[in-house]
Structure formats: C-alpha cells, structure tokens
Amino acid sequence: MHPQACCHCLTNKNVVKSKLTYKYFAVISTLVDVTEKDTLTHQKVIDRLISLGLTTYEAKVFSALTRLGEARVSEIHTVAEVPRSAIYETLDRLEHRGIIETSTGRPRRFRAVPPKIAISKIESEVMSAIKDAREGLEELACTPPQGASDVRIWAIKGKTRMKERIERMIDSTESELLVAGDPDLLVAFEGLWKMAKEKKTKIRFATTDPDKIRALKKHGEILRPKSRMKTSEMNPPKVLFVRSDKKTILVASEYKDEKQIEDMTAFWTDDQSIVGFINYLMEPITTHYD
Known about the structure:
This protein is an alpha+beta fold. The protein has two domains: 4-137, Arc Repressor Mutant, subunit A; 154-286, Endonuclease Chain A (Endonuclease, Chain A), CATH 3.30.870.10. The chain has eleven helices and nine strands. It has a seven-stranded mixed sheet with strand order 3-9-8-7-4-5-6, sandwiched between helices. A two-stranded antiparallel sheet has the order 1-2. It is elongated and about 90 Å long.
C-alpha cells in the first residue's frame, strides 16, 4: 500500500449524506404518490427501495403494504407478487427493521409505518453501515502490506482519473513539483497548479514554448530554454509530465477512442528504481533551461 493511501482513506461524509438525502426524498415522494394518487408504477417504488438497501422481497412487500394500508398475508401475497412461502420471513425482517407493525390475534394483519418514518429508519441503518464500512476500509488501507508488490507502473485511463491522481501527488508533495510538456496541456490544467501553489509548493514549468504559458507565472517559475528547441515531428503528441519531489512521476498523453472522442491516458509510478532512472535522464533536459 502506498503511503498516500492513509491520507486519502476518509470519505467525504457531507457529499455521501447529500446524495443519500436526495435518494430518501425521492423514495418518500414516490411512496406518498403511490398512497395518494396510485399513479406511479409499483416497480419504480421497488427499485428505489432496493437502492436504499432493502432486498427485492422486502421492497415488494413494504411498497405493497404502503399501497394497501393494512392487510393480511393473502392480500400482501397477491399485491406484492412474492411467494407465499417467503412472505412471513420477509414480514419478520421488515418488523425487525421497525418499518411495519403487526396486529395481535388471528389472522394477523400488517401495516406499514408512515413513509417519512420508514425512510428515516432506513437512513439511520444506511449511515451506520457507511460509517462501519469507512472505518473498516481505513483500517485495511493503513495496514502495512504482507508482501512487496510486483507492480512497478500503474495505468490510468480518462482525464478525470488522471486529475485525481495528480491531486493526490500534489497532496503528498513536500517541496517541489516539476510540470513539463505541451503548453496547451499545462494551461488546461491550471487549476491543479493553483492548488499546489496554495499548499506553498514550489512549482517549475518547462515547455518548448514558454511564451504560451505566461499565465502560469503566478503559480510558479517558468523555465526558459537556453536555445530554441526543435521537434522532429510536424504534429508532436501532446504529453504532460508531472514529477513530485523526484519520488513520483506521471506521464499522460491525449488519444482518441474508437468513436474519435478525445481523452487522456497516463501511467504513474513511485518505484524508486524507475523514478531514479528517469531523474537521471531528465537531468540534462532540465539543465537545458535557465
């Protein structure tokens, strides 16, 4: 496990809760619509309840009870379309969750608690499960690995994932960030360099045409080549190189997928033998700049 893992194993609880709250609101609205108007399909309610962690049978039975108001097993079986052999076990689980009530006497009758109360109880269960999962994953992420990994280079596909990786590199940078490559790419990711500058990280930019990245001067030092650099290709590939503290490197380039949609692919490594060799190759290149 890379040391960066422990720094990034916390989940953004506010974002998670915001997304879940939206789901809860949607479920409540759907259940109320079903009780009052009966216009939405049964399946839509079921799908939303399943998305909150209920099993298929639980979702079918609970939505059926919400629709019926109060019912016997035979009535629930007909509306919910759940095998009669599974009804009692499902009702027991829903009662254990606290979202249905059972009458005394025979035959027993069942009813769902009001939608807002039911969803509030489910929300409490889900948030508790998220907390347990987060704590468990944090413990696993921070546990030293049992053996050394054979992986030396990691591949990343997609601009979003590439940006996330660079953000993690910036977070772990202690002294210096070297950013080099195509001037258009350097400018396109200005937000990342701004983030690094806010962390008081020293940034150096290197490109074949420094004038095109003048806007980045406010974030760091722009290295200027001692002599005009020539490229052997008319249209050289757009490449981005990022190095953190001479310990971690990322190289990315643009490509077009089978639908000719532009995106980016990258590889990164913190393997010291590979990084050390690339640092050795980079030395004469960086000395070419003032």
